[in-house]
Every structure is written in C-alpha cells, then in structure tokens.
C-alpha cells in the first residue's frame, strides 16, 4: 500500500490527498488563464477567482457529504473538519464554487456564463487529477473484483493493482474510471470550444452533461454512495438506465437504501443542462457565441459604439 502521507514536519503531516487536489487546481488554473488571454482577461482575474472558488468548493463538498452522513459525524464534530481523511462530494463542491463564482464575476462586471465557459476545461482537469487523491487514500472505490480482472482484463500496472487490494480483497478502481472519463471529456471540451456554432453558456453545460453521464454509470459500482429511501418507480428507472453496464460484467452494488443521490442528481443535471441549451437557443434573444469578445459590463458604459450600436472589442 502506498503511504498516504507525503512527508511530516514534527507532528504536522502533509497528505498526498491535499497535494494532488492542489496540483489539479493549479493545472486547471494554467489552462483557464491561457484561454482567458485570448479574450484579453488577465491571469490575476482567474487567480483571484480560484482564491474564492477553491476554499468554497472544499467547504461545500465537505458540508454536502457530512449532511448526508450526519449519523457518522454528529457525535464526533472534530472529524467534520478532517477533510484529509476523505469524505467530500463533488456536487457539493460544484454548488459552492458556482455560488462563489457568480458573486465574484458580478463584482468584476463580467457575464457569468462567459467566464464559466472559459473555466469548464479547467474544472474537468481538476477532477481528472483530484481523483488520484482518492487512490492514495484507498477510498471511493467500487465493489470487489478478482485480481485477474485488474491485471488481465483492465491490464493495470502493479502499483494500481496493489493499491486496490484493501483488507484482503481487490476492488473496482472507480477513481481511475472517472479520471479517464474526465480526460476524454477534456479533449471533447477543447474540441467543442473552437466550434463556430457554440453559444455562451453551452460549453459549461456540456461539461455538466459529460461529467454527469460518466458519474451516473460509475456511481453504480461504488460502495460508498450517499443514499436515501425513495419511491420504487424512481429506483427502478435508475436501475434500468444503468443496466447496460451489466454487459461489461459489472453488477450494481447494493447500497442499503434504494436511491443513490449522485445518480439522481446526475440525471437531473443532464436534463436541466439540455433544457437550458434548448431554451436559450430558441426563446432568448441573447445570441452571443463563445468566440465573441468578452467586454466587462462596467467598461461597456464608456465603450465607443459601432454603427450597429454595439460596443467594439476595444471597449
């Protein structure tokens, strides 16, 4: 087993979990800043955005997880802040980070959807790398599998196979599935953002659709899903939608209660994102495309006008 602690200074230990999450955030920031320069937005803007968003995301992810696992934390309040022990929820992180980003972009006079589009590839990079923090902690894995499945079917290297051996049993490396899915999503988003038909907000929505689609199916084999007791028709719908994965020899893990929260949220996000794109394209007059210049609203008040009455890029 790999040591989850990178190094120690006295009684203070630095965990690989935090280092990996920080590395993911840094690489995501570099990617975002590079794209922002194309629109004349300085790197400092995105650095400040990360300073708002990253702490908000970590706090939101922890609050979300603790809220749904309250029985395990109510008698041990200090454990609530030990985020390096694992136990965060990506959807909680996204909710908090988006709220922080909305406040920050409005304060700076930018349209939120334009900035969110630029940030979408950086977000998926952070998730792609951050999942390796779960790998180091041996958490967020799937159900039990054979060693042969890992070595001969998935052809995984020894260091991954060995790390997936937990308490005498091998497990699905769901961290790896999600990381690979996010990498494919990154390539898709980088291709999509150069398409001339793409409109403001649609790259961000495409990120949500891609990530949620993968998360829905990967969640079905995880053993640590947040769950609740819901109507049987909804549970049946989710299981039926997931069932194509059984053709790969995967079996949905029993989760105690019948509704996996992340699966339900993934479906709702996909539906909401598709509806957002359809409504924005057909009923809203806002036809701004991803490639159009980004002009802060504060600057537009003093911008020189063209014949059509629209602000010039220099404005």
TrEMBL record:
Example of a GO cellular component annotation carried by this entry: plasma membrane
Membrane topology type: Multi-pass membrane protein
Record bears the keyword Plastid: no
UniProt pathway: Protein modification; lipoprotein biosynthesis (diacylglyceryl transfer)
Keyword Transmembrane tagged: yes
Protein name: Phosphatidylglycerol--prolipoprotein diacylglyceryl transferase
Leading EC class: transferase
EC number of this enzyme: 2.5.1.145
Gene Ontology BP annotations: lipoprotein biosynthetic process
Localization (cell): Cell membrane
GO molecular function: phosphatidylglycerol-prolipoprotein diacylglyceryl transferase activity
Residues the record lists as binding a 1,2-diacyl-sn-glycero-3-phospho-(1'-sn-glycerol): 131
InterPro entries given in the database record: Lgt (IPR001640)
Chief location of this protein within or outside the cell: membrane
Membrane-spanning ranges: 14-33, 45-68, 88-105, 174-192, 199-218, 261-279
The family this protein is said to belong to: Belongs to the Lgt family.
Function: Catalyzes the transfer of the diacylglyceryl group from phosphatidylglycerol to the sulfhydryl group of the N-terminal cysteine of a prolipoprotein, the first step in the formation of mature lipoproteins.
Name of encoding gene: lgt
Keyword annotations of the record: Cell membrane, Glycosyltransferase, Lipoprotein, Membrane, Plasmid, Transferase, Transmembrane, Transmembrane helix
Naturally occurring in which organism (per UniProt): Cohnella herbarum
């Amino acid at each position: 087993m790999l040591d989850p602690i990178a190094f120690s200074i006295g009684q203070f230990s630095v965990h690989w979990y935090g280092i990996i999450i920080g590395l993911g955030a840094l690489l995501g920031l570099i990617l975002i800043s590079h794209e922002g320069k194309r629109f004349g937005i300085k790197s400092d803007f995105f650095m400040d955005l990360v300073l708002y968003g990253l702490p908000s995301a970590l706090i939101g992810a922890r609050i979300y997880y603790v809220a749904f696992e309250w029985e395990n934390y109510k008698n041990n309040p200090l454990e609530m802040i030990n985020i390096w022990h694992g136990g965060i929820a990506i959807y909680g992180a996204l909710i908090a980070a988006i709220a922080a980003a909305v406040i920050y972009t409005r304060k700076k006079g930018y349209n939120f959807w334009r900035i969110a589009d630029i940030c979408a590839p950086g977000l998926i990079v952070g998730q792609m790398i951050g999942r390796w923090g779960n790998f180091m902690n041996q958490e967020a894995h799937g159900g039990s599998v054979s060693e042969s499945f890992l070595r001969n079917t998935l052809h995984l290297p020894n260091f991954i196979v060995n790390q997936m051996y937990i308490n005498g049993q091998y497990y699905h490396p769901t961290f790896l599935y999600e990381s690979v899915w996010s990498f494919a999503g990154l390539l898709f988003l980088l291709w999509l953002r150069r398409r001339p038909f793409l409109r403001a907000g649609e790259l961000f929505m495409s990120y949500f659709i891609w990530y949620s689609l993968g998360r829905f199916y990967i969640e079905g084999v995880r053993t640590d899903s947040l769950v609740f007791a819901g109507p049987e028709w909804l549970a049946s719908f989710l299981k039926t939608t997931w069932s194509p994965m059984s053709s790969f020899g995967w079996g949905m893990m029993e989760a105690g209660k019948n509704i996996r929260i992340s699966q339900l949220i993934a479906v709702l996000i996909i539906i909401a994102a598709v509806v957002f794109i359809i409504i924005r394209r057909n009923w809203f007059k806002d036809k701004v495309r991803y490639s159009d210049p980004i002009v802060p609203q504060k600057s537009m008040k003093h911008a020189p006008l063209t014949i059509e009455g629209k602000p010039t890029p220099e404005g």
